[in-house]
Structure formats: structure tokens, C-alpha cells
Amino acid sequence: MPLARIDLAQGKSPDYRRTVGDVVYDVMVATVNAPKDDRFQIITEHPPDGVIADPSYLGLRRTANCIFIQLTLNEGRTLDQKRAFYKAVADGLHERLGVRREEVFINLVEVKKENWSFGNGEAQYAQ
Amino acid sequence: MPLARIDLAQGKSPDYRRTVGDVVYDVMVATVNAPKDDRFQIITEHPPDGVIADPSYLGLRRTANCIFIQLTLNEGRTLDQKRAFYKAVADGLHERLGVRREEVFINLVEVKKENWSFGNGEAQYAQ
Amino acid sequence: MPLARIDLAQGKSPDYRRTVGDVVYDVMVATVNAPKDDRFQIITEHPPDGVIADPSYLGLRRTANCIFIQLTLNEGRTLDQKRAFYKAVADGLHERLGVRREEVFINLVEVKKENWSFGNGEAQYAQ
């Protein structure tokens, strides 16, 4: 059920962007019980001045390579699940793309199950 | 009060995109009591690899024509209103643009009335 | 902790867009207790037909110069703080860029403190 918005500066290859999406999807399934095949992602490239990440907030070093991930998902994940998600995304992007872990910015927006339609005009998750 | 973000793959005409926005607006007024003229929409075209919709999740078939609609709106809509919204958007896009209903992805994000300023630096809906 | 999405029509200078981001950041620190250097912003230019703001809703006049600001931030701000934020953003954009105050559209999305990772795969604000 999540919708992932991924924003990053232009200049990376299509393969790079696709792999960012792969990592986010794989980790969702592994850490926060997202169903298999539940992959809906919007990946946007921006000019260099379109993505602004403070270069030192909280003592981390960030550059133009910073990746923004904003995930809308159902409420109900535990703090432990959220921590596992953050860590696995940073680890996965580092391992598969060489992204420095300090440059992975993540934000979660939680909504109700009834707030999704996956097509056909139906509320597939409503109870 | 809603803000609609509409994301789709490039390659459609300006008329097509405008009509998608028309349908979302018309349906908001008809089904979830959005006030007349309350139309604020951000419609973004993406390269083909910028919008990823699983081709078969929940048994629906999705292609590069999938339309993503994320609506931020005031909390308080009933489940019936949300269902009516989903159905009417899918029906409207099908009837007016030939969009397959399976390709209409919708997500709602609910906020408080005081979380809006429509201009002039005022919180017009705060009570 | 906020993430600001700023959307506006193309045709402004890089300086203009940067200054919009400056105003939003400065006002966040001044009015809603955002920490210094907590600046994470995504500023997107759109073709003229990609940003739709009703020209007269609630009696305000809006043109293609309308600026959309959607801020995701931690829950807990008072109504007074939100009002102060709206007013100071509209004032700041007017004073520094000549933006008409009627053309400043703002929406807040509130989340929990644990819903952020600022890098390194950690939940820096979780308690």
C-alpha cells in the first residue's frame, strides 16, 4: 500500500534511479510487511538547485547526491519496524549504489487503510 | 480545500492532462463536498521510467498509462464518501478520456482544517 | 524536521526560486521552532498548465504566479504558530520578491517524530 516519492538531482543513469526504486520496494516488503508486487513509485529528477539538503544538519555531511524518499503508507507500523526500514534503505542504497548512508533522507506519512484505491475505483483495503 | 497532485507519464496532450484535472475537481465537488472553485492542482508529466505502477498488483492490469492521484484534504470524510470519490474518478476518467479504470491509482492524505492557507497569510478554515 | 515541497510555474530566475526557499526556511525557524540548519526542500518548476490555482476562490485573486508550499512537519504546533507561519511566509515573499500575498498557497501535513530519518538510516527524532 505505500506510495513512494523519490526525488534526487539529475545526472544519474536510468539504471541508478531504477535501482533506488528497487531498494525501496525490496526493503518495504522485508521490513514493514508491504505485500509482494505492491510497488507504486514516482521518481523525479531535479536540476541541482531544485533539491536542497542542508550540508551538515545533525552532524551528517550531505552533498548534491542526497536522495529524498517520502513514503505514504498505512498507519500501524511499530517504531522498531520504522527503524528497520530506515536502516535497510540506507544500507541497501550504500551496498548496491555506493550512496553514502548520510545522504539518505526518509519521511513517512501515515494514512488509514481506506485511503487507497489501487484501480477500478474501489477501496481495496477498506474494512 | 484539497490539494491534488496528479502524476502521469509524458506523451499525453495538454487537453488530456487538463481533463484529468477537470474530472478530479468535478468529482471532489460532487462526492466529498469540496466547495465550488476550490481547485488547486499540480499536474506533473514524467519520463516513462519515472512513474512505476506494478503491472498486476491485486489482479488489475496496469500499463504506462497509469494515473496517480494523491489528494490532501480535510479529515472527516466517511468511508462511503471516499468510496464514491474513487468510483466517480475512475468512471469519469474512463468516460471522458478512455482511461481503463484499472489504471487509476488514488491516495488520500487527511489533515486538519487549520492546516491550510489559501492566500494572504491567513488560515481561512481555522475555527 | 520539515520537508518543504515548493511548486511554481516556470519562468522565474534561479535566484527567485532560491529566495522562496530562503523565506520558507527562515520563517520555519522563526515561527514554528524548526531547528537551525534543518533545511530540506524540493523546489519544482512546472509548465504553465501544470500548476492550477483557482483565480478567485475565497475572493482572492490568483494568477500564474501562485506559489504552492506543502510542508510536512511534526505534529504539535499550535494554531497560533500555524497562523504566524502562514502570515510570515506571505509577508516574506511579498517583501523580498514582490509576490502578491494572495498568491501564497500553504498546506501542512503533520506526522510523528519517529517518521523521519535524516541520514545514516537512523530515526534521529524518535524517543
Task: Characterise the protein shown here.
Three copies of one chain form a homotrimer. By secondary structure, the first copy, chain A, is an alpha/beta fold. The first copy, chain A, contains two helices and six strands. The first copy, chain A, has helices spanning 14-31, 79-97, and strands spanning 3-9, 40-46, 51-53, 67-74, 104-111, 116-117. Chain A has a four-stranded mixed sheet, covered by helices on one side. In chain A, helix 1 runs antiparallel to helix 2. The two termini of chain A are 14 Å apart. Chains in contact: A-B, A-C, B-C. The A-B interface holds A 3, 14, 17-18, 21, 35, 37-45, 72, 109, 111-112, 114-124, 126 and B 7, 44, 46, 49-54, 56-58, 60, 62, 68, 70, 79, 82-83, 86-91, 101-110.
Average of pLDDT of chain A: 96
Largest sheet report of chain A: 4 strands, mixed
> What is the helical fraction of chain A, as a range of percent?
25-40%
Distance between the termini of chain A: 14 Å
Name the chain pair whose interface involves the most residues. A-B, 31 and 35 residues
- Determine the strand fraction of chain A and express it as a percent band: 25-35%
**How are the strands of the largest sheet of chain A arranged?**
2-1-4-5
The chain-level structural class of chain A is: alpha/beta
Number of helices of chain A: 2
